[in-house]
Write a structure and sequence with these properties.
The protein has two domains: about 190 residues, D-Maltodextrin-Binding Protein, domain 2, CATH 3.40.190; about 100 residues, Periplasmic binding protein-like II (D-Maltodextrin-Binding Protein, domain 2, 3-Layer(aba) Sandwich). About 45% of the residues lie in helices and about 15% in strands. It has 15 helices and ten strands. The longest helix is centred in the first third of the chain and has 24 residues.
Amino acid sequence: MRNIFMKSLAATLLSASIALVPALAETKIPFTLDWRFEGPSAPYFMAIDQGHFKAEGLEVEIAAGQGSLDAIPKVASGAYPLGFADMSSLIKFLDQNPEAPVTAVMMLYDKPAFAVVGLKSRGVEKPADLEGKTLGAPPPDGAWAQFPAFAAANNLDMAKIKIEPVGFPTREPMLAEGKVDAVTGFSFTSFLNTLRLGVEEKDISVILMADHGLALYGNAIIVNKDFATKHPEQVTGFLRAVAKGLQGVVNDPKAGIEAMVSRNPAMDKALELRRLEIALKDNIMTDWVLKNGLGNIDSERFAKSLEQIKQTYTFKKEPDARLYFTADYLPSDGSLTVKAAP
């Protein structure tokens, strides 16, 4: 009788444990991007399609965004537990909202995409060439916001550069028409927009600010601190899955783009593949990341970046690096060791 009871109990427990598996595998994590579904977002979709999120017991729903200043409040409010946003924007947000429960937990763009894109035929190939030239800059542009620090790092005389305020829709057309000699913008965006307007690739110069003295970091995965405190394993699992998704995209960028097509059927696959490849080369798979691994930051560089932000922004309180980034949730199982394409 006892054996029958034990067998029955074991069967009941087994059934219960099986019933729990789908529930655990369906923990939903809404994740907000900072922008539209474009090439550089491929690692997240790759992590879904290759089952990396599922292996962590997560069902991730990705939402498009309208800029970092849209994504950060969404995560701070708890509407989204995780998101993707520009580090400089996060630093300024937290200076203005010091009690907001949001911080960065994984650096993805080791180098920001802030750049000056110019025409070689107009004499623009290196930072010093900008003196005596006309620079088109949209006033709200993130790259333009960093330009004074970039200019200081390269000893440029701002008085010798004519700044032409332009709109985002007219920025690259004005460059293509020769109405300005260069523009500020994201490297992979302004470059590709200019190329699509018929300018020959060999005539386009891309001066990545991070390669010329700008210490700022780029976009990072951010988290709601209350959520992270309650669910640290889920945050770490999310980051591990993203790292694996990124490696999959590095190994096969075309597959990364294909993972996005079903979510954005109108996507120009060739254009977004090029955008992804530029982002991987210039912003994500940097020499530092290949040597030190994905996700963390260099404390000395970060301190320098805060000093550069001070050149264009007046802090209400002395900046504290501990408020803006923590490595506490990064996985320690080697999954952050990413390799260049085979």
